[in-house]
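Quick question, first post here. What does this chain look like in 3D?
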Amino acid sequence: MNACAIAAAVRRGQVSALAVAECAIAACGADSHVAVTRVLAERARDAAAKVDATIAAGGDPGPLAGVPYGVKDLFDVAGLPTTAGSAFRREAEPAPQDASAIRRLADAGAVLVATLNMDEFAYGFATINSSYGTTRNPHDPSRLAGGSSGGSAAIVASGALSFSLGSDTNGSIRVPASLCGLYGLKPAHASLPLDGTFAFAHSFDDIGPFATNLGDLALIWEVLLGRAVADDGAADPIRVARLGGRFRQNADPAQLAAIDAAAPDAPLVELPDIAKARSAAFLMTAYEGGHLHRDTLARDAMAYDPAVRDRLLAGALLPDALYEHAVRWRGEFNARLRARFARFDVLLAPATPCFAPSIADPRIEIDGALSPARADLGIHTQPITFTGLPSLCVPLKRAGQLPLGLQIIGMPGCEARMLRFAVMLEEKGLTGVTAPIAGSTFGAHVGELT
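> Answer (accepted):
Ran it through. Tokens below.
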């Protein structure tokens, strides 16, 4: 059942928030996809009881009244260590308060039920975690869910929760949304609150929601943003461009066909220096991540997941001058990009180069050669992150097939048109969430209660 429907039922008194929370607690406790790291049962019951008490007193608990959700395990949860997917942080000092995003959702009536699996310190596109396990894709448990917010995607795709929060530094929301067949939003850089989240690379870090429908996603976005996402040009046609060049390479034919069907008359345009942009993003991410962890690496490098440790060590050794050059070039690149694409409202591109690879052989084909999925599933998302633009992953309609997604990339000030265009794609029958969500245990139980 979707978030808006749950909230409406709770506010009307058709079902109690506590009964909904119990369903979600049970569903997360029965997680078979290695998506959940902690079930916060008592916290969820307390929060749900407060929602019910507010309603009983004639008050308004908020637009997400009683809706259960989960967060990637890098959000601060009061009283718990923020592990960021790392075993050695299980004994870290407990967070003194909730992250800002969690507080905003609580003020809207949402009920936090679980923390969710991720690549250690968010460094990867696969959610292969040496401490917590590899998250499995609900559409095919022998395949990856994507990462680094893989637990956040898998728990929603499995139907155990209506929505979740993840983080996106180079594609860590959009990649698992594509592989798990969900809507996933990377907002305009720094537009949503990051305080109380464990950092990876400050130049690119953002948070955002996973949802099963656009109505839920828009509502959650507005709650996190603290204001309505208004479309001042609602009566105007949406000016669309299809991204060409590297974005037409390493893409599934189904993605290209959907892009062309979505906007058959839209011009095919190229981002300038796209390969250089991705290289610069890799460099800046490695440098910032390596320097963030430099002191801890010096004390106890062997405590890290080996696959993460080596990348962080390499980043910590990058020269300052090289990083500063990449930062300056990013400014020049983005100025040229904004000028070149000022006449468009949205850009269309693939979200991932392929559907979910197998866990047994986590490699994908890039430019005709096999490459580690952990590093290269973000080939189409990373250059967009470099621009700071908002990007919404939308799932293609692929009943009976493994999920794939597209990116709808918004230009500055055009976020609402990005959402409006996503609705248009749904109305054309090109996008939308498909099973396994329809058969979820959580949704069925909540439906029985109402």
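The CA atoms of residues 218 and 356 lie 26 Å apart.
The chain has one domain: 17-449.
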